[in-house]
Amino acid sequence: MHLAEWQKAKVREKEDALPDALKRDSLTDYREGYFFVTLNTRDSSPILSTVIGRLDVEDGNPGAPRCLYSSLGEKVMECWKRIPEFYPMVKVLGAEVMPEHFHGLLYIQGGGEVHLGQIIRGFMIGCTHAYWDKLGIEWRVAPDVITPDYRDIDHTRSFRGPALFVHGYNDVEALTPEQVEIKKQYLRDQARKRLVKGRLYDRFKVHRNCNSKGWTDDALRQGLLADWLLARDSKKLDIALQIINTRINRTPSTSIPSTSIPSTSKPSTSIPSTSIPSNPLPKPVLDFVGNKELLVAERKLPLICHRADAAFFEQQKEAVLTEARKGAVIVSAFISPKEREILKILLSEQLPVIQIMDNGFSNRYKPLGTAFYACGENRLIQISPWNYVFQKDVKVTREMCMIMNQLSRIITKEKDDWWKK
What we know:
The protein has helices spanning 5-17, 71-81, 83-86, 116-135, 177-199, 201-204, 217-224, 228-232, 234-245, 313-325, 337-348, 369-376, 398-412; strands spanning 33-40, 49-52, 66-69, 90-97, 101-108, 170-175, 207-210, 286-290, 300-302, 329-332, 353-356, 380-384.
């Protein structure tokens, strides 16, 4: 069936109204494949477990970080393990019960009509009934006394008691087989990461609406002017700026005290810019997570792998790593495969990095994998000039890359080709 344009608009309007965590990918078949699901307790109540252990003890040894489940948390894990009893086409691959949320990894064998939503809904109902047992709420009703008002099947709106988890299932990821092992390791790391994050709260807090002297509308224009086509055509430049302004993070209209990022800029060179509107937009601002002190390091160098320099990549990589090993902080958006290759080495060698992110930070954001530990050890700061957009919708454009490259120049006060000298 073909939808009319007004019908498509209604669908888009409905999807846009959903909270980010409840959005679904319309191209994913939720009746087959590997899925990673996160559920949050109502009001983020930490009633499912307690994280215990010591960070100086390695995994597998007594005293290592782990989640000590409450009796309710044990029931939640039991409900998860029993899913195959009700849905034989499902294989549960792992889970972890955190104090205020639950992570589950499963595989649905194809060929059936059972939807992931049905499976998770049944799991949530079982968890809520276990919660009611703890609260002393009688929910078991004999078949001969069921009335039209018996609505416990809709566990999030039941008149009998509160739901354990918030409505809907959150943060669903469809995984490739190669990503499954990564998610299993993610589950194993949850307790240790929670202890790290708890001890270093300020390092993992999202600092919002931070001012930096060098981060201005003129800096945005200069970043786009690095493209000679835009530099020659003021109309195209204006259009590019309009597109960038739909994503760029700016001071909220309601003024609140903001953190200040140390100024790393120098007076801008005289470059012709487009006309400034009579009612200028609020000032561009930055959000960050991590060690702010890296921004005032004595030696900072940009990493931008241009296509024109592809033949000299090994020379560039060697120069970057040499300077980083001497103490320089490397600054980059790490967008291209070559830049990401260097980032992997920097993190593995525990060298300091300033990473410019291609999306903003959600309220629950935290760095992933080795970046998490780099942040906890003060070797990383992640900076974003963008408003947060639900990840599945993010498209990194050439214009966005140019803006992030310009931010790396402002932070370092160095030219892209420093490594050629």
